[in-house]
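Protein Entry — a single chain follows
Next Lines — sequence and tokenised fold
***
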Amino acid sequence: MSPLKAFGIKSLIYSGTENLIKHRVGTLTSLLPTALATGCTEVDPEPELLKVHNLALYFQGLCSLLPSFAKNFENQALIPSHGDSGEVLCPTKSAADRRSSLLELTKKWHSEAARQDVEQLILHLQEVVDVRIAYVKTWLTVNTERFPEGNADIRSLKRSFEESCDSLRSSVLLCRADCGSCRLPCLLIKHHEGATHDCGTSHQCLDRCEFMSEHEEPVPCGLP
């Protein structure tokens, strides 16, 4: 083979690899927010779990010829979730979305979370986020490991992922200042908008009223 022809083949391979990297990074970047938020690449019309795109691309021709193989392969190509909670998180910086997401998470943990051990709630929220980040990181790794780490597009994808992870971690940080209506801790997001702190409860004391002589039967205190 002549040096010129060899050079042409190498250039073609390099160009094809660069195009594949750009396409792969573009796909992963577009799916990343949904992956971090839900642990899926799609949620409608039904959830689609994180998959190995490399293998799917490699077997694309075979899967089209053998539908039964494609069905089995689809299951094998899933990324193990390693205990992902399936909770909907908020990797964006929208204040309204963050408030809604954190409220949903705390209510699912306990309907009156502020009356419980808040330290346990904090650990729970951190674990939910850490597991999701590890899950998505594995997904990104297996879908980019064949490409050079120094590639500009790969580096850009990793930066986007790290920035989104930082945003996700901060989205579950609790305010913990005293509630504006009682002495329970505020469960709004840390550095939340507005000066009013809110624990998310009825703000009423649930302990038995100490003035038993004033009641025919035991009643809750009811004071803030």
Remarks:
- The beta strands are 40-42, 48-49.
- Confidence is low (pLDDT under 50) at residues 1-16, 56-76.
- The chain has one domain: 3-176.
